[in-house]
Amino acid sequence: xxxxxxxxxxxxxxxxxxxxxxxxxxxxxxxxxxxxxxxxxxxxxxxxxxxxxxxxxxxxxxxxxxxxxxxxxxxxxxxxxxxxxxxxxxxxxxxxxxxxxxxxxxxxxxxxxxxxxxx
Length: 119
Fold this sequence. Notes:
Elements: E1 2-7, H1 11-24, E2 27-33, H2 36-46, E3 50-54, H3 62-72, E4 78-82, H4 87-97, E5 101-104, H5 109-117
Parallel strand pairs: 1-2, 1-3, 3-4, 4-5
Helix pairs in contact: 2-3
C-alpha cells in the first residue's frame, strides 16, 4: 500500500482526500500538513510515497514547498491540487518545478485515484 501525505490548509479538503485515499484500498494517509513548511518536515519524518499538496496556503505555499522538496529529494512524487483561477500558468509552473501532475478543485474520487495510480 502506498503512503500519501496530504498538504492543505482546508480541513474539509484534507478530510475529503483522506476518505478517498482510505477507501481506495491502494493507498493510506500517513499525515496531514497545513502548509508547505510542515510538508517538508513531514516528508522527512513520514517518508510518504506520494504527496498531494494544495498550491495556495498561508505561510509557505505549495509551489515554494515543491521547489524545496525537489532539491531535497529528486525522486519525490508531488501532485499539486489547486482551485486557483487561471490554472494554466500555475499548472505549467508546477510541472516545470517537478510536480508529477495537477488536479483541479473541485475534484472527484475518480480524478484523484486515476492520477495517484498513474504515478
